[in-house]
Amino acid sequence: MERLGPLGRRFALDILSVIVAVESAVELAVGHHLRHPPHPDPWFAVPTIALVVLPLLARRRFPFSAPAAVWLVAAAASFVDGLLVVMPASAVIAGMIAAFLLGNLGDSLRAQFGLAIVTCGAVIVTDNNPGHARSDLIFTPLLFAIVWGAGFALQQRAQHAEAAEQRAVRAEGEREGAACLATAQERVRIARELHDTIAHAVSVMVLQVGAVRHGLPAAHSEHKNALWDVEQTGRTALMDMRHLLDAIREDRGGVELAPQPGLDRLDRLLEDVERAGLPVRLRIAGDRFPLPGGVDISAYRIVQEGLTNALKHANATQAEVSLHYAPDQLSIEVRDDGRGCAPGNGSGHGLVGIRERVRLYEGEMATSTPEGGGFLLQARLVLTRHLP
């Protein structure tokens, strides 16, 4: 029973065409001519009317030729007997179906040619009808042209809907591609920042190991050799890290000499944003303490991206940055009074970078529109596994 519904919708027009052909043939053969003499010869009328209607069954294989054949055969048959096509009421239905199918063609040029066939065929059939009025030569073709127009309008609407769907799919693909590119770029940026942090820490360890090795007396040769191995391993690790960073660097330029920013430079960032025209208020909860290098840099970048969105995309007049220090996590909020989750700040590539940073430290990120409007960026960085 579940398959009958789709099958019925698919073959509904075929069933209707057969019903129209049978009804027209029966009407001509046994009933209608008794009330309206003179009547067509049944031996000619029945196969001819079937030949007019049944081409509709081939519309899937011949979308233009099949409905066009209905009108061409009807026009030709009207020269033999002018009453043959106009007497059965169901033959008019077949003409309307053919007109609709010609208007519903995907090719606009063929559809317009089909309109010419419909109007010319309607004029010929009407003119060959012995009992037609002069107004019928205008209104009958106009009726079928209107039916053709309905099919044409439906086809145009379907084409527009398909084009819109294709644009949406293409835009989604481009958006995903751009997001992947932004993710890759942000990972390279994080790698550079982590390189600076880790390289500094390893360099300090190598220097300390070297200082201890030089301070040991000659009698502790085994300890000095072990420390020498540790020192060389550290230097090799630094060199390998530098080579790896060069391999993934976007621009093959020189090494960035400026130190990577952290929350200790947050005041300078807020001053720069205020000079650009966006007043910012800073709120700090909890006792501040030194953060691990990577977390410190990521926290700064999250605040920087949130304020950049508010300044460039949200048309905000003020913003607020909140930092909440806890023993096991750092919570960050950037709130503005702009236009909310607009395309520029709700799904921008900057937020992709924030997600990468939050994921790196096993945290969470959320964006929302608070009551009263604006935009709220919330991020949480886990500290437990990254504190020394």
Architecture overview:
The chain is α+β, with helices and mostly antiparallel strands and 388 residues long. It has three domains: 4-132, no CATH class; 183-248; 263-382, Heat Shock Protein 90 (2-Layer Sandwich). The protein has twelve helices and five strands. The protein has helices at 4-10, 12-35, 42-53, 65-80, 89-103, 108-128, 136-215, 221-248, 266-275, 293-312, 343-346, 349-360; strands at residues 280-285, 319-326, 329-336, 364-368, 375-382. The chain has a five-stranded mixed sheet with strand order 1-2-3-5-4, with helices on one face. Mean pLDDT is 77; it is low at 32-36, 252-257 and 342-347.
List keywords for this structure.
3 domains; 5 strands; Heat Shock Protein 90; elongated; 5-stranded mixed β-sheet; 388 residues; 64% helix; alpha+beta; 12 helices
